[in-house]
Structure formats: C-alpha cells, structure tokens
Amino acid sequence: MAEGLLGIGPVSGLTGLSERQIRYYESQGLIAPRRTPGRQRLYGPVEVARLQQIRKLLDEGHTLHAVRRALGQQRSALAAESDVRSRLLSGQALRSLYPVTNRAELERMISQHDEEEDDVD
DNA sequence: ATTCTTACA
DNA sequence: TGTAAGCA
Predict the structure, then answer these.
(1) Is residue A25 one of the residues assigned to a domain?
(2) By mean pLDDT, which of A17-21, A35-39, A71-75, A93-97 is the weakest?
(3) Distance CA A42, CA A26 (A)
(4) How much is the pLDDT for A40?
(5) For residue A112, what pLDDT is reported?
(6) CA A104, C1' B7: Å apart?
(7) Is the CB of A58 under 7 A from strand C?
(8) CA A20 → C1' B8, Å?
(9) Which residue from A56, A61, A89, A112 puts its CA 20 to 30 A from A71's CA?
(10) How many independent structural domains does chain A possess?
(11) Residue among A12, A93, A84 at smallest CA distance from A47
(12) Residue A24, domain member (yes or no)
C-alpha cells in the first residue's frame, strides 16, 4: 500500500520546486530520497519537509552552498553513502563501479572530499 | 502516463 | 533552470 511515500511529481507540487531543481539539489547533496528497485525516487514526510525548508532558505536569498551548510553539510557524505548502499542493495548496482546509471553522484562524492563550504550574503 | 539520466539552448 | 531525447 501507499506508505506515505510520494514520487517526484507530487513532491514538486507540494514544495513548489521544479522536478529539475529537486533532482539538482539531490546531486548537490542537499537531499537523499530513497529509491525503488527501479531507481525511482520516493520521498517521505521527512524529505518533503526538508525540501520545503530548502525552498524557504532559497527564497530568503540563500545560496545553495549556504543551504547545504544550514541543513547540515555532514549529511552530504552520509547521503551519498546511503545512496550508494541502496544501489548496491537494489541489485544492478555498482558491478563495474563506474559506468553505472549515475556517475555524476560518484564524481560529486569524490570532489566533495576536497571542497569546503562557503558563506551567505 | 511517469520518471530517469544525459546533454544542450 | 528549462527542455528535449531515448529508456525503463
């Protein structure tokens, strides 16, 4: 049954953020939605609330980097790890460890080990 | 019908 | 950010 989990479409409507923005913020480590075995994003109340918070901060004029810090930059590492893990568990995961479905995030994980946060206006 | 990723306007 | 393309 529906476990109170929403697809990106409904979440977009609930947050006022475009699907494009939601996926982009995820790639930047601001959110880490769960995935179905088919890799479709599933958002629970926590994720929706987090996105609404991001929306709020953005409207207040904050930078994506500032938002990342405000929401806890430590999440980014955990989120990435969690995502990789979920992919491993979902089956057709990191067989070759590179030419997967989303190497963009792997690249982000790597580069994120080097860069640090900046500030707001 | 929806979502997903990649790539380009 | 938007949008198109080609899949699943």
Answers:
(1) yes
(2) A93-97
(3) 12
(4) 95
(5) 55
(6) 13
(7) yes
(8) 15
(9) A89
(10) 1
(11) A12
(12) yes
The predicted-structure confidence for A39-67, as pLDDT tens digits, reads as follows 999 999 999 999 999 999 999 888 888 88
> Does the nearest atom of strand C lie within 7 Å of A23's Cβ?
no
Burial class (CB in 10 A: 0-12, 13-18, 19+), A27: middle
Strand blocks (E) in chain A:
34-35, 41-42
* A115 vs A33, higher pLDDT: A33
| Chain mean position to CA A16 | 16
CA distance A72 to A76: 8
Distance (Å, whole) CA A54 – CA A31: 9
The answer for residues whose C-beta is within 8 angstroms of residue A27's C-beta and 6 or more apart is: A104, A105, A108
Q: Is the CB of A9 under 7 A from strand B?
A: yes
Specify whether the CB–CB gap between A90 and A37 falls below 8 A.
Answer: yes
The CATH number of the domain holding residue A89 is: 1.10.1660.10
